[in-house]
């Protein structure tokens, strides 16, 4: 059987990614071993990014073996691509709907807290500390420190981690930031609860922590307001 090591290695990785009990006692002793293992990682990561969490492993292995053994395929290549595209679209649509529902449920409960205020657009904010300086307008540039988390507390971005404040024109960020920062004065610290409509929506980088339609939380310190946008800034 041609390339049996390649087949068995990436099957092992996929099984492991899906939390099934298999023998993972594979030693990487040669270049082929390393390449095989790397391919397994790549395939498993691709499946994970596509929200695949279950497979019929017997059918999966049969498909691999039929290709490597040059057997007649039960499904033609063109049909296989159509099946895969349709399946991944269904998985993505389901994930988008799930994230939207989870975000709305979280925000619905969150706005019941006394310290949370809600704007007409649906933006929620909590005043941690009031500032005493000026407030920015949409055409200003701001200097801020911030921490972004998902509603489950997972951190996905932080100027604190990078060791320096962020600086950007206020009209060049997501609507929730543009609106929320204008409520603040220099020196203020607010927590912004941003629904997907005021966030990134479905426009997120594939494979990252952020998924389509997620509600987001930002803890923001407004350090400085620079009047007018700076063309050299992102």
* Count of discrete structural domains: 2
Q: How confident is the prediction overall: mean pLDDT?
A: 83
Strand content: 15-25%
What percentage of residues falls in helices of 4 or more residues?
Answer: 25-40%
Based on CA inertia axes, which overall geometry fits? elongated
CATH architecture title of the largest domain: Roll
The multimeric state of the shown protein is single chain
Q: Structural class of the helices, strands and pairings?
A: alpha+beta
Sheet of most strands: 7 strands, antiparallel
Question: What is the string of SSEs from the N terminus onward?
Answer: HHHHEEEEHEHEE
Q: Supply Rg.
A: 24 Å
- Output the number of helix runs: 6
Distance between the termini: 54 Å
CATH class of the largest domain: Alpha Beta
Query: What is the third-level CATH name, the topology of the largest domain?
Result: Chitinase A, domain 3
Which regions contain 5 or more consecutive residues with pLDDT less than 50? 1-9, 15-22
Count of distinct strands: 7
